[in-house]
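Note to self: keep these together.
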Amino acid sequence: MKSIDTLLAEAIGKMSPATLGKYNERVAGKRLPQENLVNIAESLVAQEGQRSPIRRNNGAQGLIDEGFSPEKADAMLIEGLIKARPQQNAGLIKETATADQLTESQRKDYEFAKMVGMSEEDALKSAKL
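Structure:
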């Protein structure tokens, strides 16, 4: 049978520097019995091996290729916004007399501004810039 001091030394010896820091935070300034220190150390060592895997972000829905352009980026952004708030975007873009006079690029800017929630007046101003 090992002594409590040996068990504590073995548990601390198995800890990584980050886990050792957590151990020191838990026991700092406290007068705990040796059995409690061993239990804390062993539980931290057990938790260290049970880390959750780092999950990778899937990123954008479309694949980025070498021919990636700002137009494709805008289209992907608008598509994502529409999917995120479908009920809000249903009747969002209305035909107005001033909106009909916009060029194609200005029209895209206007539609995007309306999509992100800008007012009609502000969307027209930003599209004409």
